[in-house]
Amino acid sequence: MDWMNQAAISAQKSDAVFFYVFGLSVAFLIFITALMIYFVVRYSKKRHPKAEQIDGHVGLEILWTTIPLVLFLSIFYYGWTNYEYMSQAPRDAMAVDVTARQWSWSFEYPNGKKSKVLFAPINKPMKMDVHSADVVHGFFVPSFRIKIDAVPSRTNTTWFQATKLGSYDIECTVICGVDHSLMLSKVIVVPEEEFKAWYFGGEDAPEPGASFRAAEAHPDLKNMPMGLGVLTAKGCLACHSVDGKPKVGPTLKALYGKEQQVLVAGNPKTVTVDDAYIRRAITRPMDQVVRGYPPAMPQTPLTEQELNEVVRYIKSL
Fold first, then answer.
1. Backbone angles phi, psi at 52, to 5 degrees
2. pLDDT tens for residues 161-186?
3. Angle formed at CA 68 by CA 63 and CA 74, multiple of 5 degrees
4. What's the pLDDT at 34?
5. Cβ(95)–Cβ(129) under 8 Å?
6. How confident is the model at residue 1 (pLDDT cuts 50, 70, 90)?
7. Helical H runs in the chain?
8. Cα 81 to chain centroid, rounded
9. Distance (Å, whole) CA 259 – CA 23
10. Sorting pLDDT into bands at 50, 70 and 90, what band is 22?
11. What is the layout of strands, in order, in the sheet containing 104-108?
């Protein structure tokens, strides 16, 4: 679940404050409960049939006033410093204009590009300038632990620095109308090179994070290894198996490290299946056709991240 992920620095800081407060609460619960049980037993009527008047203890009163005060001030300081940190975006953060409206999100980047999902490079700060085109909304990314109101005629600011690749939910936290529950989007975190290729590319530049969007479109891919998800989404498993069974193309099981007979310009050649071979077989399949199989594999466009995941998955087989 998204709320269990720590996919950004903000999530790590927010969770640290939460667990600090939670830990203190549990410690005090155990301490007070233990004292209560002790006093019930120690000062029961059976042990003390005659009650004694207690006038008070100045030292004890100072102690039980000072200790909670110090702990509560530490909670305030810890929470405030983290809030202050998260409210001030770094100077090198990319500013994205976030517009909320009934019932959708839109994102505009500094170069004028627009999208319905938020694309973000990994390990780079992103500043969100959030406002609303109609009513009050709430911009919330559970995996990043960031939440800020989107208000008409006002811009509120927050920021994040994603630390994990993937696709993460964006939700509206304010009941904003009949289709409030449908006001959803995604943050798609991709390698910096992939983001730059899209950001600086022309109008025809493909949107980044194709494998993550494929997993969202096909829920059955979500629990797969990312490399297997890419192979499934791209249709590669129609011709290649991962369990050793023969198909139109060679099986991928136990393929890595194997010596393969291929045809190069019609001439037979023996090659070892390594990272370079797999990459070439995907991006330029006609360069080296495996003997005994038809030259039917089309060139499959994959991003660098997708290629890395496919190679990693085939190696695992």
1. -115, 145
2. 888 888 888 889 889 888 888 888 88
3. 130
4. 95
5. yes
6. very low
7. 9-42, 58-87, 192-199, 210-217, 226-233, 275-283, 304-316
8. 24
9. 57
10. very high
11. 114-115, 104-108, 94-101, 125-132, 156-161
